[in-house]
Every structure is written in structure tokens, then in C-alpha cells.
Amino acid sequence: MIKGAFCTSISMVLLFVATAYGQPSIQNLDGIWSDGSQMTITGGSFGSKNPAAPFLWDPVDGVPAYSGLSQGDAVPVQGDGDCPDCPWPNRLYTYKVEYYESGAGVRVPGKAVYRLNKSGGFQGLNLDLSGAGTIMYVNWWTMATKNLYDQGNGIVVNKLLRAWSTPDGTDGRTSWEVRMTMRKISDGSGGLESTNQYYAGQQGVLQDNKWSNIEATVFNQNISGSGGGKLTLDVDNHRWMNTGNDLASFKGPYDWIQAIGSSPHDASRYADGTYVYMGDIYVDNTVARVMAGDASTYSACTHKEIQIPVEWSNGEIVFSANTGSFSDGEPVYFYVINADNQVNETGWELTQEPVPGPGRPGQPEIN
Questions:
Q1: Which of 54, 188, 295, 364 has a CA-to-CA distance to 327 between 20 and 30 Å?
Q2: Nearest-angstrom CA–CA distance, 154 and 148
Q3: If phi over 0 gives left and psi between -120 and 50 gives alpha, with beta otherwise, what is residue 361?
């Protein structure tokens, strides 16, 4: 297996241009579907993405700063003072984040993930957003060995992700919790005002010992450029949360990740053996992305793996393949989502038959 590598884009600010791209269309896909190999999609209405690379891509496995780590080692962060190239600025509080590369908790055999004992994770990542239309998009995989909401010792409010507008959260906070509730805090005349929104029947969204893909998006101002902002949440491509454009009164933009992982209000209510795993964390300041899915239409996909763009133009995208947990020979379909959040609803199917392609003797041609 070719291991991935940690990357972060150099540019810190996304310049928003109100350009309508329409629905993307894929005309061809070329390359080798192998982890880390370079592939090219050609078509139209892909829009622009500058820089092409995501703000942060942390596959855990293959991160250069982790090259000396082995099973159970504590994962370093920039705040330690001796790891400037580490992906994350700080740990969530002082909890240990373990490097976990073998055992029942891995998502892909031979590929490391993070392991948290009841509580832990990272914080302090700043996308440094400014201006209208700014977006925070976070895509990651997670799994828990036991129910994180209620194990019989009392309900636990566990935040999987927190996005704040300032490092201390004084101007505004949002959080996505295990129960898939959302807490919004706005700055009103009386100070911080907390509003909870609960979405019925969502306690079972995260299943014990099952990896799930989470996509959380903060639209600091909606894409059309008018009105307020909104927050959305998708788990395994199912939309569980859409607040509507009701963030107009909130200060922002929300551009600080102040928690990702497991942040329970009372970890003592968890039984021993409660572990949370996470990996393949992708953070960006745009919704423009390339996805590989398991169904011929985007809406029908239940398994998606985000791809890592290297070059991006309106008619061509070059990306580094991220095969994730797709099995060899499993049907795979490709999708382009542009900055307007438009997607080709019908996927481009990957052809995996070993037919020699021009200039690549013995290599499979994808078309």
C-alpha cells in the first residue's frame, strides 16, 4: 500500500467570488485507482479552487512527523515545542492521543488511526477566514466501542466537533454532539445566549464498533451571498442536520476548530474500555471537493471517500487517490462538488479491468 502524507495549504484566506458554475459534468477519468496514485478528471463546470490542496489533510498513517511512532505512542502536537511540522496545534486539554496501527480499531488494515481513551482529540486549528461567503468544511471518520450518549450511568453531552469564532469562544460557538444535536451560542446584548436544537431519533446515528464518515459544514454566509449562515451535518451521506439560514445574528466567521475527537462533559460516566477512534481528517475553506462513492448516484451512496486534489481548473482536476476502505474490485463512482455545492448526481464509474492503456504497458486503463 502506498501511504498518504500529511499536507496543509499555504494560503490562509479564501477569496470569495460570486460566480455561478452550474452542475459539474465528468467526461473522462484517467489514472490508476491505487492509494496515493495520481488521477485526472476532465469535464466541465468544476469551477475554481485556489489553492487546489485542502487546508489540512491528515491521514494519520504516513504523516512525516509520526514516522518514529509505534502502537500506543502519544501523538505529538505543535504545542509540544519540538514538532513544528505536526498537523495539529494542540491536544484537547491534556488527554493523550494514541497512535494506533494494529488491532480491531483500525479502519483499513495496515493503516494507522488515532485512539482516544474516553476523551481527547485536537484543538487550535485556525482557518483564518474573512469576508462574505466563507466556509468551514470538515470531513472525518470516527468509531466508538461503546455508546457515547448513555451507558447507563447518566446522559453524557459529548462534542465530536466544536467550531468557534475566536480562540476563547466569546463571540460565538457551535458544536456537533454525539446525539447529533447542535448547540449554538450567539453574542446578544445580555452576553452569550445558548440555544439547543435537537433532531428526533438521532441517538442511534453512530453505531457501536462501526466506522462512520462525518461531514460538518459551517456556511458563514450562504452561497448565494445573501442572508445569514447555516450549519449542516451528514453521516454516511445522510443529511441529519440543516439549520437553514438562521445564523445572521451570530458573530463570526466560525473558523477555529476548538475540538475534534471526543469531548464529553463527564468522562467518568463512561465505562472502562470506551475508546473513540478517528482518522482521515480533511479540513477546508470551501465545499469544492472530489468524492469516490459506492453507488451510481450521489444521493444513494452510503460509503464515500474524499479524494485529495493537487490541481484544479474549471475543466480538469488532478487528485491523489484515497482508496480508504474500498475493497479491490468493488464498484466505485466519482463525483465532483464545485464551490457552489453542485454535484454531478450520476457518478462516473471506475473501470477496473486490467486492459493495457496507451503508454502504460500492463497497467489498467480507466475510462
A1: 54
A2: 11
A3: beta
Can you tell me the distance from the alpha carbon of 158 to that of 259, in angstroms, rounded to the nearest whole number?
A: 11
Q: Residues near 12 by Cβ (< 8 Å), separated by ≥ 6?
A: 127, 128
What one-letter code names the amino acid at 159? Answer: K
- State pLDDT tens for residues 12-41: 343 444 567 899 999 999 999 999 999 999
Residues in the chain: 367
**Number of structural domains found in the chain:** 1
Residue 336 φ/ψ, nearest 5 degrees: -115, 125
Is residue 211 assigned to a domain? no
The domain in which residue 335 lies consists of 20-55+289-360
Residue 318: how many other CB atoms lie within 10 Å: 18
What's the N-to-C CA distance of the chain in angstroms? Answer: 23
Q: Which residues contact 15 (CB under 8 A, 6 or more apart)?
A: 50, 131
